[in-house]
């Protein structure tokens, strides 16, 4: 296929990129957009043609791209003014790009992607646009002789309806049950839900069910944050012969608003092994993979919150580490929260490739437990974990080192 227009002369001034001394194409079809495969003094590269605007028999570039929201909100109509139209069939190619977020940011826009082709000077796009995303469109007119390129970008567009929270995670299942030192471990898995916005993180909840008249009651609900690119979580220290209620929730961020999705749930019976696997594997507690040299290096104030750095010895063959930390008892004089049980059993988690990590979102006068676990280069997570505990000081004692810290009564 030969594209319209004339290659610049071999001695013409061209961009440094187009002037590189390489042969990167053999024919026009190997070049993107309206560029042609052209020879210059030092090679063959894709270059913008000359005289394309006066080439005969090619449709003109469309203009005045207008985007209108239809009544059903999730569909839009595009209209444009055709350029010069030579005889014959003209095909209009529409491309879109977008980004998610409450505010438009040009540098966050994705790549241009074809979305529709039509022979009419308008197009109706159904189920393409999602709430909470900014869109731009552009149109090219093409016929058998080629194209002059794409139009100017349309004005930015976002639907009048705001984004909804994510749907519930799909296909929630549990893996094989493992017995470790008299407790049960299993892996909870799920698939991402449908969502107007990209998933920001997941929350996993698990609680032991009580037997008896109030069988739906739970003694304690545990929760853990899971990164957005993870769709599995290792549940540990479950009691044998017990019922557990497991839930997974997806969360999305829209500006300052956090959209909490529906929760998927299932009941796990740790005495009925067939609901996860026909194999019940017993693993001795004395396993390789324990972290060596784990200790609290320092407590410090940063970005308006109390933090703690932990360190440990690096070991060859470890790809990353998973860190979990949770609070136990807290003094009632805590400067952030006067509810003694407000943060009880609140668990946070993170991963790192380095042999140290800064724990965040800590409270004063609270006792914390931190666990570190190895993940090998093959992605195998160690069944052994290493833990330490520490107690944070009172705010007034810590304030002596950081003048910007304000303690409440």
What would you say this structure looks like, in words?
The longest helix has 4 residues, at 395-398. The protein is an all-beta fold. It starts with 35 loop residues before the first strand and ends in an 11-residue tail after the last helix. Strands 10, 11, 12, 15 and 18 form a five-stranded mixed β-sheet that branches. It has a four-stranded antiparallel β-sheet with strand order 6-5-8-9, with no helix packed on it. Strands 14-13-16-17 form a four-stranded antiparallel β-sheet, with no helix packed on it. It has one helix spanning 395-398, and strands at residues 36-40, 43-47, 63-69, 75-81, 91-100, 113-118, 122-126, 133-143, 146-150, 170-174, 177-180, 183-191, 201-209, 218-227, 232-238, 243-254, 257-269, 280-283, 295-302, 305-311, 318-330, 347-352, 356-362, 366-376, 386-391. It is elongated and about 80 Å long. One of its GO terms (biological process) is neuron differentiation. It comes from Ignelater luminosus (Cucubano). InterPro entries: Anosmin-1, Elafin-like_sf, FN3_dom, FN3_sf, Ig-like_fold, WAP_dom.
């Amino acid at each position: 296929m030969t594209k319209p227009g004339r290659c610049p002369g071999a001695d013409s001034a061209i961009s440094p990129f187009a002037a590189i001394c390489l042969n990167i194409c053999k024919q026009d079809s190997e070049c993107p957009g309206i560029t042609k495969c052209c020879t210059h003094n030092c090679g063959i590269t894709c270059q913008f043609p000359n005289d394309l605007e006066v080439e005969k028999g090619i449709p003109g570039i469309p203009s005045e791209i207008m985007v209108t929201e239809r009544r059903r909100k999730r569909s839009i109509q595009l209209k444009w003014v055709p350029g010069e139209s030579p005889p014959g069939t003209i095909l209009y190619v529409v491309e879109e790009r977008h980004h998610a977020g409450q505010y438009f940011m040009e540098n966050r826009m994705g790549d241009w992607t074809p979305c529709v082709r039509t022979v009419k000077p308008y197009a109706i796009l159904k189920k393409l646009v999602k709430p909470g995303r900014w869109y731009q469109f552009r149109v090219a007119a093409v016929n058998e002789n080629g194209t002059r390129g794409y139009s100017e970008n349309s004005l930015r567009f976002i639907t009048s309806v705001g984004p909804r929270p994510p749907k519930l995670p799909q296909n929630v299942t549990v893996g094989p049950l493992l017995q470790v030192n008299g407790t049960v471990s299993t892996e909870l898995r799920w698939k991402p839900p449908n969502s107007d916005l990209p998933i920001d993180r997941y929350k996993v909840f698990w609680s032991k069910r009580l037997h008896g008249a109030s069988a739906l009651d739970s003694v304690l609900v545990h929760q853990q944050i899971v990164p957005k690119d993870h769709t599995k979580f290792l549940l540990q220290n479950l009691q044998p012969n017990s019922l557990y209620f497991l839930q997974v929730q997806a969360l999305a961020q829209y500006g300052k608003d956090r959209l909490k999705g529906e929760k998927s749930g299932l009941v796990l019976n740790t005495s009925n092994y067939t609901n996860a696997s026909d194999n019940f594997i017993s693993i001795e507690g004395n396993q390789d993979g324990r972290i060596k040299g784990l200790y609290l290096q320092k407590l410090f104030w940063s970005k308006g919150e109390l933090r703690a750095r932990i360190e440990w010895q690096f070991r060859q063959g470890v790809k990353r580490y998973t860190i979990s930390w949770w609070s136990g008892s807290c003094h009632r004089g805590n400067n952030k929260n006067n509810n003694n049980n407000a943060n009880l059993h609140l668990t946070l988690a993170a991963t790192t490739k380095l042999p140290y990590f800064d724990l965040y979102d800590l409270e004063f006068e609270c006792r914390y437990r931190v666990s570190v676990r190895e993940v090998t280069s093959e992605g195998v997570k160690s069944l052994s974990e290493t833990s330490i505990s520490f107690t944070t000081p009172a705010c007034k004692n810590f304030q002596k080192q950081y003048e910007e810290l304000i303690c409440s009564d």
